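pinned: reference chain
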Amino acid sequence: MIKNYGLALIAFIVLLGSCNNSQKSASAQQDTVKRATLNKPEEIQQISEVITRFVRAYLSQDNEKIHALIHPEHGMAIIYRPGVMDDFKLVDTFDFKSPVPESYPYSTFQNDKMLTFESLPEFKCETDKWTKYGFSSDTTAKSVTHLLDTIMKYQGEFNEVKYDDKTLSRVSALEDGSYRVILNPTDEHFLIFHVKQFEGSWYVTLLDRSYGNCDA
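pinned: its C-alpha cells
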C-alpha cells in the first residue's frame, strides 16, 4: 500500500513538473485555431501601430493610453505565477498602481529596439538567458499559442477549478488567433503581450507576466 502511494506521488510530481516546464517553454504551442499570416503592407502597419502604442504606454506607465487599447467588451487576460502553476486573471481595466499579482509591480525600462517580424526568442531556464534579444512579433500562421487553455486544463486537473461558459468564451475571444510580441532588450527586462484584431480594430488581449521567470 505504501509502495503504491509512493509511486502515485512520484507520478504526480513528474506530471506537475512537466506542466510547469511546458509553460516555461518559449516555443509557441500550436493548436487547431486557424490564423492568417500578416504580410500585406497595410496589415503590417496596423499591427505595428498597436504594438508600439502599447509599449510606449506601458513603459511610460500611462493608464489612459493602456485603457484605449483594451477591448471594451472582452477586456484583457493577465497571466502570472502565484506558485508552482501559472494562473490568469481577466480584467476590464488596467492600473499600474494595482498590479496583478500585487506582489509583482509593473516595472519600466529603457528601450531602443526597433520592432521586427520574425521568429520569437526563447527563454532558457537552464541558463536564465534568452536565445536572442530585441523587439519582435511572429505574424506567420504557424506561431499560435494557447496558453490560457493550457492553464485552465491544469488548474482544472490539479486544483479542481471549474470555469463557467462566460469565462471560456471570453478566453477564446482573447487568445484564439492572437499574435504574440516579445520585447527583451536584456535578460532582466522584458515585456510580453498579445494583440488581436476585432472587426478592423486592434487591441492588446493578453499580458504574460509569467514567462521569462523560472522560479517555482
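why pinned: The first helix runs from residue 2 to 24. Confidence is low (pLDDT under 50) at residues 1-32.
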